[in-house]
Design brief:
Number of helices of chain B: 5
Largest sheet of chain A: 4 strands, mixed
Strand order of the largest sheet of chain A: 1-2-3-4
Number of domains of chain B: 2
Number of strands of chain B: 4
Radius of gyration of chain B: 20 Å
Strand content of chain B: 5-15%
CATH architecture of the largest domain in chain B: Roll
Number of strands of chain A: 5
Oligomer: heterodimer
Helix content of chain B: 55-70%
Number of domains of chain A: 2
Number of helices of chain A: 11
Strand content of chain A: 5-15%
Order of helices and strands of chain B: EHEHEEHHH
CATH class of the largest domain in chain A: Alpha Beta
Radius of gyration of chain A: 54 Å
Order of helices and strands of chain A: HHHHEHEHEEHHHHHE
Chain lengths: 353, 194
Amino acid sequence: MKVSLFQCLFLLLLVSDFVHAESLPQWSDEDRARLRRGEIIAGIDILVEDKRVIASLGLGSDSEVLRALPPELEPEPEYDPKVVPSEFLPLYFTSSESYLIDPQQLLSKQESLDRLGFLEYHADDSELKIRMYLFDSEQNLPVSYTIEKLCEDHYADAPLTAIVFCFLGNPDRSQLAFAGEGAAEVVASDRRKMLESATVKAMEKSDPAMQLESFIVQLSISLFWLEKERIEARAALAAEGSRALAGKAWASGDGAGKAEVITAIDASALSVFKSHLHWIILGVLGLLCLIAACVFGWLMWRRSRRYHFPVVEVPERLGASYAAGVGAVIAFHKKLGSPSSQRNQVPDYLKRV
Amino acid sequence: MRRLSDMAGALRLKERQKLESLLDEFQTSFPQLFFSVYYGALEDRANIRQFGLWLLNHAAYEDLDISRPNDGGILLLVDLNTKVASISFGYMLDPFLTEEDTFNVLAKAHPHLLQGNHLKAASVIVKQLSRVLRKKSRRAILQQKIFGPPSNQSNGSANALERIRSNRSNRYAAEQAKSKSVQTTTAKNKEIER
């Protein structure tokens, strides 16, 4: 009996603890007042969102029903592979210090570093820099953003630079323009050739990154030759200018002109050559006469020279008093009998029996 | 006999004149030597070497000075019958000219001989041989200067002249002896008849 009483007490204790732990939320005074006024309907959260039910309850759409809705996410704009995203356009069309402009990060970091490294290497070696703008293969630029506009706006005062729009994976669409000082001197045909050769080289590769590499290397080679031509043309122009200057100075004979004459040595040499041309011609003629006289004299001397032989007593042979010389014999009765076939002759009468 | 004997009629008059002037030039360059050309039509059985040897030993050149003995002679023999050409030379050139030298010279003229252009062939031979002889002469003189005169060398043309004279005197003596022997035999015959 005692044991059952003890068990009942223990169970009562446990139940009271559980009840205390799982106690309901407490109403605040304000909420209780609103509940009494009917402004809050308890348990409405778990009711089915049925229009008829809501209507029967007399709740409108503007009612201040507290709902636990997920936060609304802004929809991402759809990616159009044919359009350059507008946020990147200003990054493209600004003056940049880098030789590789890739704001869309189309290349991986390593590839980008590699290409940039080569472009910087080229820029160190050459006066003609390359600015490479990277776009995706299908991307089209807005009409107002063109390569010509970029050249005019940002590279007009820069040294001669090759601006390249490169569409990754689509070398056919590449564009090349020259901007800066002397850009007008680069003939369109040369530019076309350069672009074609670079494109062809790029097309040999299948990987877009490799295509870009080949494109840059070939373009760099073409630019090297262009630079060489420019240097030669500049040198020829300078020489011509100095020659003209020297001619003027020589004609005028003023002090300042004379100083310029010293710098234009070749021009002065030419004018000196012209002034002394008749003497030079006379000298050459005299030299030729001298040579002819020497040759003639040598011929005459040779003609008049006498050749003697020491007389050696030779014992007579075959009883001949004057000659027993065994000279050669050659037959010429047939054309096929060449002299070489008749060379080794042994006279029959000299053979020992 | 003359230096240029055209028995076969191989050359025209003008060609003969040209060749003679060429032979004169050769003689001017080589005062001890002379060059003789003989165009003939020999018999088939004749040996051109033997004929050349005989001719050079027995010919008396009427257009040559006596200071040029036959042992300084070079004879170009062209047989138009058997189409064979040969070069013979005297004792004076024995130490200096070889058969090969003469053959090389003839080989140079072979195309002209084939074409029947005998003047051209002869002029080529004379010029080529002159070139060879000039070289040999220079070398011989140089050797003489360095090593001294050869032991069996005589005093040049003077000795040669002496030898000619001796040869001529020998011949004269032989002829005289022959005539004497003839005379003696006739005298003996007369005596026997008596």
